[in-house]
Amino acid sequence: MSAIATSRKLTSALVIAVAFVVMTSYAAVQVVAQHDANRAIQSIKSAIMEFALGDTGAYSKVTVTIGREGFEKALASADAKTPIIASFISSTDYESVLADHPISVKTTAIYSNPDPVAQVVLARILSEHGRLSVVQSPISLSITRSIDPSTVNVIEHPSSIQQLLRKLNGTDLFVVFPDASTLNSGNVRYVIRSLYRQGAALVGYSEKITSIGGLASVYPARYAMLSELEKTMQQYGQTGQLPDPTFVDDVEVSVNQRLATSLGFSGLHEGELERIVERELGFTQ
Q1: Orientation angle between helical segments 67-76 and 91-100, nearest 10 degrees
Q2: Contact at 8 Å (CB) between 85 and 58?
Q3: For residues 65 and 85, is the Cβ–Cβ distance under 8 A?
Q4: Are 245 and 214 in contact (CB under 8 A)?
């Protein structure tokens, strides 16, 4: 999806949010954000805060959090009567924070990472007959369990990066998840360079991973996460029930064209890859 198209869709989603506010009145919506939220998230925070001018319905008191830190803060000060909707948080961070805060407050989440199956689908499109590998760690266990083990090589959590690279020998594409115990800012570039020397590459879950040297990534469209948040708030306001945590169906794909050319991949058009991934997952007809 082009930057222009994304911008138009995000603007449309913001208009929808404001329209929802205009139609209602007197909501009790609290927003808790993490300190390092970037400008894009800050703009969405502003949009969410507009809900404070509206009324989500009979069940109007709700806390919306942005990022892991925001969710942690809300849980630390939560009361059992005010539900929490966590946004812009990965599925692994959401589960980890809940495990560390065993309280009775109702919570749900709109995940910032894609359905992991979408990542495997993208990897298989890129390398139809190649060897795909994923790491299964205590953090990523719920993710890897959702993937058909016959479609990927599952590597048990390595004790070191060197052990990881040895286990990745023979891999064509390494599908990575939001799991700092495996890949983090301190080692990801080293892993990317090492894989390149083996003729392999990463398939990630964010545009950032593509920009620092991954081959490609699939991730939720930002406007779609905002739209999902609006639907979640409306559902709670009307029924008093929070839906289950969810991955966003509408995804975007970014490709590192320079790396793709170097590794022998050609004709990787991001828009077409998005359509194929969504079709394979049944998101579109």
Answers
A1: 20
A2: no
A3: yes
A4: no
**Cα three-residue angle 31-34-38, rounded to 5 degrees:** 105
**83-94 pLDDT per residue, tens:** 899 999 999 999
Cα separation, 188 vs 213, in Å, equals 9
Q: Which residues is 86 bridged to in the sheet?
A: 65, 109
Residues 6+ away with beta carbon under 8 Å from 159: none
Q: List % helix, strand, coil for the chain (3-state, nearest 5).
A: 45, 20, 40
In the three-class reduction of DSSP (H, G, I as helix; E, B as strand; rest coil), residue 271 is classed as: helix
Interval 106-143: pLDDT, tens: 999 999 999 999 999 999 999 988 999 999 998 888 88
Query: How far is Cα 253 from Cα 269, in angstroms, rounded to an integer?
Result: 9
Reference 219, options 202, 203, 207, 201; nearest CA is: 207
What confidence tens digit (pLDDT) does each residue in 152-168 have?
999 999 999 999 999 99
pTM (2 d.p.):
0.80
Q: Give the pairing type, strands 173-175 and 216-220.
A: unpaired
How far apart are the C-alpha atoms of 86 and 107, rounded to whole Å? 7
Question: Count of alpha carbons within 13 Å of 256, Cβ hemisphere only?
Answer: 23
Confidence (pLDDT) at 44: 54
Which pair of tokens denotes residue 129?
């007959």
Query: How many helices (H) does the chain have, and how many strands (E)?
Result: 12, 10
Whether the CB-CB separation of 55 and 24 falls below 8 Å is answered with yes
